[in-house]
Amino acid sequence: MRLFLDTADIEEIREINRWGVLSGVTTNPSLVAREGQDPDIVWKEILETVPGDISLETTATEADAMYEQGLELAQKAPNAVVKVPMTAEGLACGKRLVGDDIKINVTLVFSPAQAILAAEIGAYIVSPFLGRLDDVASDGMGMLRVITEIYEVQGYDTNVLAASLRSPMHVVESALAGADIATMPFDVFAKLVKHPLTDLGLERFLADWQTLQNDLKGEA
């Protein structure tokens, strides 16, 4: 399962990319707006920093305008993936973009039925939102399991991206459910590396090593 960062903050991206485990980035209009800069500048920095898939989202709501916007986004870099919404207009636009050999990410998916539609238009990525379903007392992880099972049974090539992940366990359970990609905010990504027993073990190893060094100095 590939690990993506869900942010438009270049410093967060640089930090996780430094670890050597970052495979891509997902952005959306809200994340880009939060940076308070020209979107083209934000996208350019991200596209140049991470060589993997970078999702850039359309903001038009009508298929033709969305398609033109998608063409512009796709031309920004070879690793740009155009995000379109799971709407009738988004599907119509997405189908045209796929026909132009442009990779698309169908976003805001909240049901297996919608995931089937995304696969049928040849989407490169489908993004079911787990956490937002959990917020309204629905089973987000259950939806993900059904989607991955349907895709396996039907032989769909579309990558399933588990989105709206709120905790490390969301990431682990997404991997168990067969997600191809998991995208998460910086704070969740940072928690993946943390464990109190790791910190305690390292502290003890270093203390023992320092004791040995002190003993050797005393014998010299």
Short description:
Helices cover 55% and strands 17% of the residues. It is an alpha/beta fold and 220 residues long.
Explain the layout of strands and helices.
Blueprint: E1 2-6, H1 10-19, E2 24-26, H2 29-34, H3 39-49, E3 53-57, H4 63-74, E4 80-85, H5 88-99, E5 104-109, H6 112-120, E6 125-128, H7 130-135, H8 140-154, E7 159-162, H9 168-177, E8 181-184, H10 186-192, H11 196-219
Parallel strand pairs: 1-2, 1-8, 2-3, 3-4, 4-5, 5-6, 6-7, 7-8
Q: Which percent range describes the beta-strand content?
A: 15-25%
Question: C-alpha Rg, in Å?
Answer: 21 Å
The CATH architecture term is Alpha-Beta Barrel
Give me the number of helical elements: 11
Roughly what percent helix? 55-70%
Q: On the 0-100 scale, what is the average pLDDT?
A: 97
Strand order of the largest sheet: 1-2-3-4-5-6-7-8
The overall strand count is 8
Count of discrete domains: 1
**Major sheet summary line:** 8 strands, parallel, barrel
If you consult CATH, what is the topology? TIM Barrel
What is the succession of H and E elements?
EHEHHEHEHEHEHHEHEHH
Could you describe the 3D structure shown?
By secondary structure, the protein is α/β, with parallel strands linked by helices. It has a single domain, classed as Aldolase class I (TIM Barrel, Alpha-Beta Barrel), CATH 3.20.20.70. Helices cover 55% and strands 17% of the residues. The protein is built from 11 helices and 8 strands. It has helices at 10-19, 29-34, 39-49, 63-74, 88-99, 112-120, 130-135, 140-154, 168-177, 186-192, 196-219, and strands at 2-6, 24-26, 53-57, 80-85, 104-109, 125-128, 159-162, 181-184. Strands 1-2-3-4-5-6-7-8 form an 8-stranded parallel β-barrel, surrounded by 7 helices. Helix 4 links the parallel strand 3 (53-57) and strand 4. It is elongated and about 80 Å long.
